[in-house]
Amino acid sequence: MLIRTPEEDIKYVLYTEEQIQKRVAELGQELGEKFRDKTPLMICVLRGASFFFTDLCRQMKCHMNIDFISASSYFSGTKSSGTVRLVKDSSIDMTDRHLVLVEDIIDSGLTLQYLERLFETRKPASITTVAFLDKDVKKPNRNGVDYRGFVIPDEFVVGYGLDYADYYRNLPYIGVLKEECYQ
Ligand code: IMP
Ligand code: MG
Known about the structure:
The protein is an alpha/beta fold. It has a domain at 20-73 and 81-154: Rossmann fold, CATH 3.40.50.2020. It has helices at residues 17-34, 50-59, 110-120; strands at residues 10-15, 41-46, 65-72, 85-88, 98-106, 126-134, 147-151, 157-158, 174-177. The strands form 2 sheets. It has a 6-stranded mixed β-sheet with strand order 4-3-2-5-6-7, with helices on both faces. A 3-stranded antiparallel β-sheet has the order 1-9-8, with helices on one face. The two termini are 15 Å apart. Inosinic acid (IMP) binds next to strand 5, helix 3 and strand 8. Residues 48, 73-74, 80, 103-111, 156-158, 162-163 line the site of inosinic acid.
């Protein structure tokens, strides 16, 4: 049983709720303008992107459809396993649709690359990728993601949908965990 609150496990806050909402509003406005006459199919990569996704969609002033998929590249802990699995697929026909793939965070870039390649085979009109966070610090935009909320240092972060061992997703900010919380 966990007796400490999630907040008590945070070493420091990287982005506050206010900073996040301001940036998401900017991104949403930009994307809303880009897709004004295109009715994009917004695809949320569960579970990490769920909080970002719903905030982003609400800031986009255009018609859209939404769907949810689930991919897994982390089996546990804080290191990528190197293999990506599609755990839940979309049931919507993607042919000639403008897809907007919404991810929580880009680390190695493997998950996004896998999903882009998979959806390209379904003949969409376009694929636009959006990640809330990008750990792209050494080589700018090596992953080729189209829109990013923030570029962050190579640290393991939690909150605003992001987890450690499936906890901490409900924190309204992005934070770094205290060392003693990693097992
Ligand atoms: P990639 O395939 O290596 O780019 O990893 C992407 C996935 O790893 C994300 O969708 C997250 O689920 C997870 N991930 C990577 N870094 C972090 C982190 O700092 N906190 C929480 N999850 C992370
Ligand atoms: Mg994830």
